[in-house]
Structures are given as C-alpha cells and as structure tokens.
C-alpha cells in the first residue's frame, strides 16, 4: 500500500474512528456525573452548578460528536471546556500533568481542537448531510 492510498483511503476513516472513540469515552464522564453510570463515589452535582453544566456538555456534546453531527462547533465548545477544566482543576495542583491528573483533559482539548479543523471524517452525519445537499 502506498502513501497515497493511506492518505486518501484510510485517513478519513481513521479520523472518524478517532472521533467516535474519543467521544464515547468523553460521554462516559457525563453519564457518570448525571446518570450515575458507571457508578461513582461522588454524589450527583447540584443542578446548574459548574460540574452539572460540565456533565451536560459531556453527555450531549459527546453524543453529538459520536454521531458526527455539528462536529466543528461542538468540538470547539468541548475543546474550550477541557482547556478551562485543566487550568481550573488540574494545573493548580502541580505543573506536571502526570502529577496533577490533567493528562486526559489535555488530550481531549487537543483532539477536539483537531476535530474543529478536520471535521468528522467519512463516517459522520455531517458528511451524510453534505452529500444530500450536493
């Protein structure tokens, strides 16, 4: 397989797989906060609190990204959410992400930022909608 095939055939598919896997794992944070699944030792956040709003963004944004619907604007919002979460909750603990527990927030932030530029990939509702209007 040559480099052209990798780029033209596999890159859009692997972009979709990255989007789907990252979104499903991200969405699990929202289901845990808001729905108690998987079980968490933390109580459910109070309605309209910062953790509750984060849970809504994680649940709804994760679902939209999983489907590849409104990928770019949703990914932009979620990238910003993860940047804020890192600087508010993790960075004050330590300069080093491996010590402050913020490595996942950093990865989500940059994966979502990449999706802002790259879109949802071949297997997304955005692509399907674009094909129907063309």
TrEMBL record:
Protein name: DoxX family protein
Keywords: Cell membrane, Membrane, Transmembrane, Transmembrane helix
Main location: membrane
Keyword Transmembrane part of the UniProt annotation: yes
Family as reported in the entry's similarity comment: Belongs to the DoxX family.
Residue intervals passing through the bilayer: 46-67, 74-92, 104-125
Residues annotated as signal peptide: none
Keyword field contains Membrane: yes
InterPro entries reported in the protein's UniProt record: DoxX, DoxX-like_oxidoreductase
Location of the protein in the cell: Cell membrane
Domain of life: Bacteria
Bilayer disposition of the protein: Multi-pass membrane protein
């Amino acid at each position: 397989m040559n480099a052209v095939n990798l780029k033209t055939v596999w890159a859009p598919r692997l972009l979709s797989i990255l989007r789907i896997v990252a979104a499903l794992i991200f969405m699990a944070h929202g289901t845990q906060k808001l729905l108690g699944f998987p079980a968490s030792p933390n109580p459910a956040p109070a309605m309209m609190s910062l953790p509750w709003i984060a849970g809504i963004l994680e649940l709804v944004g994760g679902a939209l990204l999983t489907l590849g619907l409104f990928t770019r604007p949703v990914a932009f919002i979620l990238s910003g959410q993860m940047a804020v979460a890192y600087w508010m909750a993790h960075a004050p603990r330590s300069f080093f992400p491996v010590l402050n527990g913020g490595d996942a927030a950093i990865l989500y932030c940059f994966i979502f930022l990449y999706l802002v530029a790259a879109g949802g990939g071949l297997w997304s509702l955005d692509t399907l909608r674009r094909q129907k209007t063309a």
